[in-house]
Amino acid sequence: MRKLLIAALCLAATATGCGATVEPQADAESKSTAVTLTNCGRKVTYDKVPERVVTNDVGITELMFALGLEDRMAGFAMPDDKGDLTDVPWKDGYQKVKWLSKDQLTKENVLDAHADLVFAGWNYGFREDSGFTPDALKKLGIPTYTLTESCHNGRTETSRGIMPPLDALYEDLTNLGKLFGVQKRAAALIAGFKKQIAEVKTKAPARHPKVFLYDSGQDQPFTSGRYAAPDQIISAAGGENVMHDLPDSWTTVGWESVVERDPDVIVICDYGDVSAEQKRKFLLSYAPLRNVSAVKHRRIFVLDYVDLVESPRNPSAIARLGAYLRG
């Protein structure tokens, strides 16, 4: 399965990595040219091509690797609970780029790394409670780029998501391609991803199974509304996210709403101190869920954390989940 996954991702990334020929880095003229992008609905101008990017979390880091931009990076921060990183298409990136912290980024990490761009997201590094925000970094003279999946949408102070999750992935790849002068690489990735996803959709079952995404939590489950990546991963795979009506990305719900919506399949997000097997045992033994179809028929599927946040692994996750739903 690992070999098939790597092969599929290499096919989707014909312009980067995995031994493929890539376009050269931006030339000297482009380095001195300002680039204006739309990020989280606002125009942002970058005076130069960043050369010391610092990223937060695995999906964001792998967006840079997928575009072949590891030489533009000064480091990344993420916990060490995100699975095996030695057998992924971008393992060379992890070997080349410094692991700055096994926690979230801090101002100290960023300053020590002499970063000239911080690429993070709300709840993926950026957070108001500790003052690690784009505005705070701007005061230090450090530009930022915010992961589009995580953009605040204005419905509440904390709700996130301004477009469908796969559109957010394509938006970020396009923007990063423009910023770093690797538009052809970005376009090839996007085209490959769209082709891979389209092939899965042609095989989707006539009846779309109802799917609940279980991230964590026993008193209340943490799950995905319609603006987090799992929503579109589920729908593109041929399923229906039972929490699609929630206008947020990652959020907490009550177990009673899960019981009421009676999912056919539960997808476990695998990461953290609680293993996927422990989560599975909890779901199968939790009394309020005993009559839920997915529990009664033991229809529980596991995807890695990085499959389920915005990342270049999303299309592969769609293909694997699609095969399970068809089975």
From TrEMBL:
Signal peptide: 1-20
Keyword Cell cycle: no
Family label: Belongs to the bacterial solute-binding protein 8 family.
Protein name (database record): Iron complex transport system substrate-binding protein
Keyword Signal: yes
Occurrences of domain Fe/B12 periplasmic-binding (ranges): 52-327
InterPro entries, alphabetized: ABC_Transporter_SBP, ABC_transptr_periplasmic_BD
Organism (species): Streptomyces pseudovenezuelae
Taxonomic superkingdom: Bacteria
UniProt keyword list: Signal
Record lineage: Bacteria, Bacillati, Actinomycetota, Actinomycetes, Kitasatosporales
